[in-house]
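Take a look at the protein record below and flag anything odd:
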Amino acid sequence: MRRIKKVAVMGSGVMGSAIAAHFTNAGIPCLLLDVPAPEGDPNTLVQKGLENAKRAKPPAFYSKNGFALIETGNFSSDLGKISGCDLIIEAVVEKMDIKQALWKKVDALRAPGTLAASNTSGLSINGMVAGCSADLKKHFLGMHFFNPPRYLKLLEIIPGKETDPGVVDFVRDFGENVLGKGIVICRDTPNFIANRVGAYWVSAVMKAAIDGGYSVQETDALTGANIGHPKSATFRTADVIGLDTLVHVTETLFRDLKGDDEKEIFKTPEVMEFLVKSGSLGSKTGKGFYQKNKSGDIDHLDFKTRTYTPKQSLKLKCVEAARAEESAAGKVRAMVNAGDRGSELLWKTISATFLYCAKRIGEICDTLVEIDNALKWGWGHQLGAFEKIDALGAVSVLERIKKEGRALPKIIEDFLAGGNSSFYKREKGRDFFYDFRTKNYQPVVRSEKIILLKNLKDQDKVVVSNAGATLLDLGDGVAGLEFHTKMNALGPEIVTLANQALDEVERRFDALVIGNQHDRAFSAGANLMLMLMAIQEEEWDDLDLFIRNFQNMNMRFRYSPKPVVVAMQGLALGGGCEVCLHADHVVAAAESYMGLVEAGAGLIPAGGGTKEMLLRAMGGVPDSAVKLPFLQGIFETLAKGKVSGSAPEAMEMGFLKPSDAVILNGDFVLHFAKQAALGLARSGYYQKPQRSDIPVLGREGYAALKVVVAGMQEGKFITEHDAVVALKLGWVLTGGNVSGREIVSEQYLLDLEREAFLSLCGMRKTQERIKSLLDTGKPLRN
């Protein structure tokens, strides 16, 4: 069986070094090569590329531990080392002659049967190895990562004419399961799928904006988060990509496309030519369509004057309508149907992109699913081109297009003639798409490792539900607890349902999995709005009861007679992190961001989080060892409200145990959590007793932490109220008013947590911090 134990990446530019970093994220050692420097150390260029990847923002590596997995070298003296690699990826400059020359050299050095791939964004895969051996062609394909490779899910796989189908299957499986990617199989056409249709969308928006008199700021307000696209929208996305890079993509399309009746859309706008010629290439040069002014504010380019103008106050009816909608489909409908000038731009560009994509089916791919997935995974759109039309009502959209005198592609006319009303549909918990080849609906093919909770609901798998959470039957004796409040904020409804869920699991299931499929959050923590209302109304007994109930819920998770496993991805902050801390096992997507951030709200963790981090800090520390340094590390993490930048980093910080699992494909967390829960249930799981043997450092330890806090305050690193919060935290971590080397119980620590939390709630500066977080989303350093 083939295994990828080491990878070579040829080219250490922005893409090459980031690809190498992502392989280390998967735990795979990497040989990173580039051309030798003209003078001095021949590895100067490759080392510079690696250093840039180490400093990249957002980070390219999950953890600094990945740095050690990269070996550097140069094409002159180290190319022969590729013979010891199982996969060779080329990511050099996008020039066919340079790539062809490099692959001929590689062909002579690689071991027969070694997998080989190009990260080209659109050059011909077949043309690249035209003069190479049959063995290379058999094992060669395109592996087009999107930048940044760590964060963008799409991996386009482009087989050549002679690529072994078994190689394609292996790389697809490897990309999905090991690298955590969403795979789209492409044909060897210019710029493949994502850049072909994504560049069309960007070009169409830019042309419509310039011709229609829309400003850069106005256009980005219309084409960003308000229609389920990234906040960077259109012009800021262009700046991030690099205007020279974007021009290269569109010019390549304009040059290489044959028989495309809309290739003119890819002509570079004059304003883009102006910016590129003047060296204003976007984020990498400090200015493009946007520029930071001397006061730190962001100005945008005026298309007519070619100068920068300050941000304006915008009043768009469609934007206001979209803010009232939760779902991406609802936002698109609100934006397009609002009837203002913003709606006009969106209707024009969304409908044009849809028609262009429809005409490309059969040329660049077989089905509409590949196009929609490419836009979602490569460009960050929540809805693909065909999904947007379904959101707007496919039949009404197509009738409007015809009334405007625009022709529908024949496959769309056939779709209408067949009496169909949507491109996707769901029946009995299964998803289907309209297949233009068969003129019928076919099942959407997904990995068997993907569990879709919405489909289980359609299959009547709901056990019990309320406004905050739902308990589902995941099958095989496993129940699934899903939170579904805004950002999965934890409130009384979730606590109530969680207790019902535990009762149901004890009666009729073998195990419980806690997880959801929220785009951004496992849980962003407690419902601060409800908490602030209780404080303002001085409902201290109600607040105390909620904290007790939350603590008791987490303790029931910890000491359930049946195993409890968390499936986590996205944000797990505050109370959300505390739920994870009390599970028997956590399966975390690598892109998980964990932290006990209560200090930012002027509080301490009081759902058992302080207690759990103390247990983890002291666990395994010999009785003879000096324990204060272990405690100080946890104290600093909680007092500063530190958040991990990834699941591997969360493990280093103690939020995850070494025995917890980290996987790169977030779509699979529920599946693997279910398997872990079954494994625990079938391996003789038993209910554990609560602990009453926890060592604390008492007054002596608290005095030491007071010295630390005083030093931080004297050095102006923390505010006066930061110090108050930190000392409350230290009081709990050291066990309160007890002598050193005392032994206490979990319940004792929970009571200390709750008392400290409630006392902080009564302080004006804590209340100011909570209100600031609710009003601005930012912590107040008062």
The longest helix spans residues 341-360.
